[in-house]
Input
Amino acid sequence: MSRYWSPVVHGLTPYVPGEQPKLAHLVKLNTNENPYGPSPRALEAIQEATASSLRLYPDPNGEALKATLATYLGVRADQVFVGNGSDEVLAHAFMALLNQDQPLWFPDITYSFYPVYCGLYGIQSKQVPLRGDFSMCAEDYLPRPQERAGGIIFPNPNAPTGCLLSLEGIERIVAGNPDVVVVVDEAYVDFGGASALPLVDRYPNLLVVQTFSKSRSLAGLRVGFAVGHPALVEALERVKNSFNSYPLDRLAIAGAVASVQDEAHFRESCRKVVATRGTLVAQMNQLGFEVLPSAANFIFARHPSCAAADLASALRERAIIVRHFRQPRIDQFLRITVGTDEQCEILIEALVEILGG
Ligand SMILES: Cc1ncc(COP(=O)(O)O)c(C=O)c1O
Output
């Protein structure tokens, strides 16, 4: 607290990211990073960019990345916006598109940055409860005679549940709310979801946001992007150019472009994560855990007789970190990132010991 703060700062409740511990030997399964590392081609491109051009400002519009993504995704470059991680892209979307007269709708259990952006930008919100099985139901997002949304945002797969809404469900929400923007946050879609990207040409109110942090294993580079109608992209550009002209540095642009060009590495990395997820879920079930159906690179699990907070601290004593949210409805769950097979074996051995003890 300080008397020098602007009034808005007093009212903020900042997001608390998962811990990035300094100790190297930990089994780190708390922030949904990809254990397999980025494409070697991305690393080469980053090294080359480091050697040749850091003296110069980067391209403020990241045109090379926009063009690469447009070709890869089968859209036009003016439908693509790029930013410093998808968090920044989302922040701009909150300000540029979701700050309306009516409240913004999002699930009651979801990415905890959404309420933070609402606080930052003074956006009213309504939290739409997930169903009893933690699924999202499209009908809950359709306008009613007395009530309509000013905007809608949700992750698909949802976080931290990992549950997926079908493409039909997404289309119902987007088609049923033609007057407001629907943002689908696809941070984890490459691990088993159907992307809403094929819908963007038909629905001018749909914005799809993705990231290089998870499936492309470039969380440290900070690259995210959005795809939608050029008018939505223009709104994002207007906010971006009123905030920071150069959100992507030269290394980020070079690394991201090369990453998109290495399809084989991307596919193999996702395949391995999905395979390990299957084994992990089966082993957790054997230990008595209920695991929600996950289409992401993490699982969300609870044990009928052992409190999640106790499990999290017992794992931590064994140098394994997972994420626990002290939040109504989900405080008995642990969110566990799918690591390598070896990391998951260490986790399972520790759980056997803790539950047996
Ligand atoms: C649902 C969701 N959206 C967006 C992000 C932000 O990812 P990044 O800013 O690394 O692109 C995360 C990160 O964990 C996430 O879980």
